Amino acid sequence: MIEFDHVTKKYSDGTTAVNSLTMKIKEGEFLVLIGPSGCGKTTTLKMINRLIGLTEGTISINGKKISDYNIHELRWNIGYVLQQIALFPHMTIEENISIVPELKKWKRYKVEKRVSELLEMVGLEPDKYRSRKPGELSGGQQQRVGVVRALAADPEIILMDEPFSALDPISREKLQGDLADLQKRIKKTIVFVTHDMQEALKLGSRICIMNEGEMVQLGTPEEIIQNP
Ligand code: ADP
Ligand code: ADP
């Protein structure tokens, strides 16, 4: 479980990006953060894996403050998918996916097996794609690799920052479907940022609507639809 307790983030220029945010994200839940540009979604996400620090309040994961975790321990347990495709262009697909498993010193055969499993999960034939470079894949295929790379070492938590926004509508719809199916199988805690309500309603088990750094509504898709 991820727990925000009166979390505030003020940037050094004085901008209050997140203001006294309190919420609990349950284990295995797919939480969507939604709201207009600049409302603090990305800031909220980045505080969870300590990509940025918080100004006031506390964030805890499984009852332990994130500031008390060793930073590597924290980040290894949290997969992160960016808005932009962020594969290393000089590395093969297999090498890109293997980064965290390698850091964790997984055995070679285990890494290879995992890479095959993950590529299959998102419909990329392992033998055809593992040795290719990202440039030899379409945008949608690369983003698929970006998604499974975040899952590679079996993190408990996956953070996703508008992972599909750079894709064409058809790839986006396909990947949304894949992600929804994936979540049913892996049951990870996912925190997903978007500004697209359709996407939020399609994917979220709960939706947190933010505005100007504050949470204005938190509920299931059904609750959000009934109480707009
Ligand atoms: P969102 O993801 O909802 O678009 P952000 O979390 O990126 O919102 O930004 C929230 C607010 O904080 C915005 O006003 C943004 O301009 C500001 N902000 C974000 N990052 C920084 C930064 N590094 N320094 C100063 N202000 C920032
Ligand atoms: P998003 O698309 O999630 O709203 P942006 O593309 O606006 O994020 O911001 C990209 C990066 O720039 C983020 O890391 C954010 O923290 C930073 N950033 C956003 N607004 C500002 C700002 N006003 N000053 C400095 N950095 C900012």
Task: Explain this structure.
- GO terms for molecular function: ATP binding.
- Belongs to the ABC transporter superfamily.
- Residues 2-228 form the ABC transporter domain.
- It is a peripheral membrane protein.
- This protein is of the alpha/beta class and 228 residues long.
- It is 38% helix and 26% strand.
- The strands form 2 sheets. The protein has a 6-stranded mixed β-sheet with strand order 6-7-8-3-9-10, with helices on both faces. A 4-stranded antiparallel β-sheet has the order 2-1-4-5, with helices on one face.
- Helix 3 packs across helix 4 and helix 3 (93-103) runs parallel beside helix 6.
- The longest helix has 18 residues, at 169-186.
- The model has no long low-confidence stretch (mean pLDDT 92).
- Bound molecules: adenosine-5'-diphosphate (ADP) (2 copies).
Secondary structure elements and pairings:
Layout: E1 2-10, E2 16-25, E3 30-34, H1 41-48, E4 56-61, E5 64-65, H2 71-76, E6 78-81, H3 93-103, H4 108-121, H5 126-129, H6 139-151, E7 157-161, H7 169-186, E8 189-194, H8 197-203, E9 206-211, E10 214-219, H9 221-226
Parallel strand pairs: 3-8, 3-9, 6-7, 7-8
Antiparallel strand pairs: 1-2, 1-4, 4-5, 9-10
Please provide the count of β strands. 10
* Secondary-structure class: alpha/beta
Largest sheet: 6 strands, mixed
Average of the residue pLDDT scores? 92
Helix residue percentage: 25-40%
Task: Give unreliable regions as ranges.
Answer: none
Q: What integer value in Å does the Rg equal?
A: 18 Å
Please give the order of strands in the largest beta sheet: 6-7-8-3-9-10
Count, helices: 9
**How far is it from the N-terminal to the C-terminal residue, by CA?**
27 Å
Estimated share of beta-strand residues: 25-35%
**Ligands and ions found:** adenosine-5'-diphosphate
Series of secondary-structure elements, N-terminal to C-terminal? EEEHEEHEHHHHEHEHEEH
Described by the principal axes of the CA atoms, the overall outline is: globular
